[in-house]
Amino acid sequence: MKDKVVLVLGISLIVLISTAGCGTAATPTPAPTQAAQVITVVVTATPPPPTATSAAPSITPLPTMNITETTQTTATPIKPTSAPVRATATKKPAAPAATATATPLPLTLPAPVLIGPDFNPDQGRKDERHFPSDALIFEWQSIGPLGTNVCYMIRVDFVPGAGDSFLQCDPQWTQKAPAQTVQFILYQPNRGGPTYGGLLPNPPSDLMVKWSVTVVADQGQGTGPVDPRTGIRHKVAPLSPKSDTFEFPFKGSGL
Fold it and tell me: Tens digit of pLDDT for each residue in 95-128?
């Protein structure tokens, strides 16, 4: 088709040249008007000419490569199924509070031997005291020098009246040699030091006084016997059996 288009264009060009080159200078007689011809050119894609090697080219396969694919695992956060637990600080356990009761201990010491006062006619003893003129002086035999924080405890009961316990922790008395005399004094009311004023019945009357002595371990402040040196009560644990109990009459003056 391309050759036909070229041929037509070539013929038209020859005709135009021939017409222009021939004739005279006289004014040419115009040719009769002709309708314009429309030439439709259809262009069709022409397949390429066949080649000597029309067979499809061979493809050399690439060598097989072993590729190891590494898959990175991303941890997926786990949504809690319940409310988060709030971390709380662990409190250090508090130290146990001091108790008012004593810790029991084995009885390793002998019971003190009392001297007096004592009212015992069978043994020839008829001790008696009078208030408010007399101090009450209690005496017993030492069991020997006492250890650290070891004291004598004196229990005193007025009948009728009240009772109380007192500590004798003064080294002047606790470090006595065996069988030497140890003392503890309850003074008259309105006197310095421990007195028996708080033990008397109200109103005062004739009464009996009972008393005994025990060796004890002093375990610090508590609700037990009072230490007259400080006025502070302590908790104590017995280290000896209680001594015998002595008693004597305590009469008002002038009766």
Answer: 444 556 789 999 999 999 999 999 999 999 999 9
Q: Which residues contact 48 (CB under 8 A, 6 or more apart)?
A: none
All residues at 6 or more sequence positions from 240 whose CB lies less than 8 Å from its CB, including other chains? 107, 108, 109, 110, 111, 112, 143, 214, 215
In single-letter form, the type of residue at position 145 comes to P
Q: Which residues contact 150 (CB under 8 A, 6 or more apart)?
A: 174, 215, 216, 217, 218, 239
- Return the domain boundaries, the chain: 113-252
Amino acid at 140: W
∠ at Cα 103 (97, 108), nearest 5°?
160
The reported pLDDT for the residue numbered 73 is: 42
- Are 78 and 200 within 8 A, CB to CB? no
**Tokens 């080294």 correspond to what residue?**
171
Assigned architecture for domain 113-252:
Sandwich (2.60)
